[in-house]
Every structure is written in C-alpha cells, then in structure tokens.
Amino acid sequence: MAEKMLVIDDEDVVLESCRKIFTAEGFSVVATNSPKEGLDLIRDATFDVVLCDWKMPEFDGMDVVEEISNRSPETAIVMISGYPSVGRATEALKRGAMDYVSKPFTPEEITDTVKRAVQRKITEEQRALGRFEKIVKQIQFPVPSAEDKAPATIAETVALTVGVSKTTSPWLSVLVLGLHSIWHPDWVLVSRN
Length: 193
Prior knowledge:
Low-confidence stretches: 189-193
CATH superfamily of the largest domain: Response regulator
Strand order of the largest sheet: 2-1-3-4-5
Shape: elongated
Structural class: alpha/beta
Order of helices and strands: EHEHEHEHEHHH
Largest sheet: 5 strands, parallel
Distance between the termini: 49 Å
Number of domains: 2
Strand content: 5-15%
C-alpha cells in the first residue's frame, strides 16, 4: 500500500509540483490550499507525511503544524517556507515538524527532506518504544504459583489475613476481625472471590 501524503500550501504551483514529485515516488498525495481543510483531513484520515507551508492566508503554518502534531503524532511533518530563517526552522521543529525546507526547492531537495523526516520519525518512535519496553521490564507483576489457591471461605480469608492457620468457627472469625480492626484500623480486608 502506498504511503499517504497531505500537502497544505496556498500556492497551486507548489501543490501541483509536490503532487507530481511524490506520486512518482509512490505516494498517494492529497493536496489542499486551505489549512482548515487540511486539519479536517487530518481528523478524518491518517497520513504518513504532511508538507505544510508557513505563511498562509487563514492560519499561521506554525499553528497548523502544532495542531497536526497533536492530532496525529505518528505523522512526519515537514514545514515549507518561502521566507526561510534559522529561528523559524527551530520553532517549526519545536512545534512538531521533523524537518524544514525553503522554497523554491528542487525535486531532489524535497524528496531528500521528506526521506530524512520519515527516518527521524521512525527513529523517534523506536526510541519511545524502547523506553516503554524498559519500563515494562522493570515492573514486577505477581504471578501465582501452581500451589497457590484462593481461599474458599471468609474464615480462610480472615485466617490468611491475620496470620493464623485456620479458623473453623464463624464466631471466632468475627472475634478475630474485631480484634484485627482495633489493632490495625487502617488495614482493609478484601475477599478474593
């Protein structure tokens, strides 16, 4: 299945160029000149890559990038700008973009940038998965042995809780529970049914 790409730019020539370049690269490309429509598309579908312009009439592209990053954290986002600056590129990266390319760009520049962005996203996800696996390995879940069996009666539950071998009389269970609650009022007895 082809990777899906969304291109959001207010210039039709950029939309058409990206459509031609990335269709030839095997992408399924959806293009829009409306940031609002782009955000709606992100809400309704999953995209592997989003190319987003910085300056557009309705929205600041930085806000669009941040919103896309929040709505679709698995998407690799590339910011495109006809007004390049180191400060804006840094801000785009802080807000969720994986890379930044300035206009005008050659087909090689934009495809290399997208490949880098996708690779960075994959690396980022692998690191997060590695951290998660490390945390899960540190958690010790109690695993009952084959000899463990749940108590059959309330009397057995009481006996196990207070540390006696077994109570046979229900009245003795009530007495033990009463004494237990006096000595340890903050302990709660729970039946394992």
